């Protein structure tokens, strides 16, 4: 067989096979149909790290000033469950909720990790205590088990400073919101791996390091514990639903 004729036959065979695979199926009525596999399905939502608890007390990590922060200092992971609790508390109190607030907080929760931090200091040096509760000269980051660090995209410091006298020492306290990205902007991958055993929210300043820690949900037993400790977060919440929305609604506008 001549080479040119051989090539023509092969090309014709390839086209025939292609047409067999791409020809749509036809139903009894003669209309085109598609197989279930051919139907477009929505992409599954990426798995996210899920903490087993919402509420965490501050732990002294390292440094010469273990008493920089008081034992009352704590942080709450503002998960969708906690947001729902905030909203329920507001509704039960007869609080008026703006219509756009629900949409905004859902957008915020879908794209950011938010911590509500109550920070208190009774340090002997009042000027340092004042700076410490305002996170001035304090580095803040999430630390992952593999040593990775996630920097906050926003530190929304509480405008109200609680100041009181504890004997000869001044006590300062402030409630602030720390906002972290769920997706790393460079890699477009989750900032916290869904399979991480836990994460730490680290406060590092004045030659001392402290952290809040959240272990991950790891099974049915942990999931049960997850439900049981919701009350701890409710008792500790300082920021109401409307205040939370008011302080962070600018984040939702980035998706307009």
- Count of DSSP H/I helices: 7
**Order of helices and strands, N to C?**
HEEEEEHHEHEEEEEEEHHH
Strand content: 25-35%
Task: Please tally the β strands and state the result.
Answer: 13
Question: How would you characterize the largest beta sheet?
Answer: 6 strands, antiparallel
Counting helices, strands and paired strands, the structural category is alpha+beta
Give the overall shape, derived from the CA principal axes.
globular
Radius of gyration: 27 Å
- Name the helicity range: 25-40%
Mean pLDDT equals: 80
- Spans where pLDDT lies below 50 across 5 or more residues: 1-39
Distance between the termini: 67 Å
List its traits.
alpha+beta, single chain, 256 residues, 6-stranded antiparallel beta sheet, disordered N terminus
Could you provide a short overview of the structure?
The chain has 256 residues and is an alpha+beta fold.
Verbal overview:
Helix content is 32%, strand content 27%. By secondary structure, the protein is of the alpha+beta class. The strands form three sheets. Strands 3, 5, 6, 9, 10 and 11 form a six-stranded antiparallel beta sheet that branches. A five-stranded antiparallel beta sheet has the order 4-13-12-7-8, with no helix packed on it. It has a two-stranded antiparallel sheet with strand order 1-2. A hairpin with a 5-residue loop joins strand 1 and strand 2 (32-33). Helix 3 crosses helix 7. The longest helix has 20 residues, at 3-22. The protein starts with a helix and ends with a helix. Mean pLDDT is 80; it is low at 1-39.
């Amino acid at each position: 067989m001549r080479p040119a004729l051989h090539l023509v036959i092969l090309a014709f065979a390839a086209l025939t096979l292609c047409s067999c695979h791409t020809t749509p199926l036809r139903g009894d009525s003669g209309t085109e149909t598609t197989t279930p596999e051919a139907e477009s399905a929505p992409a599954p939502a990426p798995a996210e790290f899920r903490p087993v608890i919402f509420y965490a007390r501050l732990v002294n990590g390292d440094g010469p000033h273990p008493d920089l922060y008081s034992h009352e200092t704590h942080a709450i992971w503002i998960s969708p469950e906690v947001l729902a609790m905030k909203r329920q508390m507001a509704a039960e109190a007869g609080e008026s909720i703006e219509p756009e607030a629900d949409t905004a907080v859902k957008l915020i929760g879908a794209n950011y990790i938010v911590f509500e931090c109550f920070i208190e200091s009774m340090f002997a040096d009042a000027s340092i205590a004042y700076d410490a509760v305002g996170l001035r000269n304090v580095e803040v980051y999430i630390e992952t088990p593999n040593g990775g660090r996630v920097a906050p995209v926003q530190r929304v410091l509480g405008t109200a400073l609680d100041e009181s006298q504890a004997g000869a020492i001044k006590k300062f306290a402030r409630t602030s919101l720390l906002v972290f990205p769920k997706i790393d902007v460079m890699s477009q991958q989750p900032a916290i791996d869904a399979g991480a055993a836990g994460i730490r929210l680290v406060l590092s300043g004045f030659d001392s390091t402290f952290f809040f820690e959240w272990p991950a949900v790891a099974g049915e037993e942990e999931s049960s514990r997850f439900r049981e400790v919701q009350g701890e977060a409710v008792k500790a919440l300082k920021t109401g639903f409307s205040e939370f929305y008011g302080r962070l609604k600018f984040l939702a506008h980035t998706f307009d």
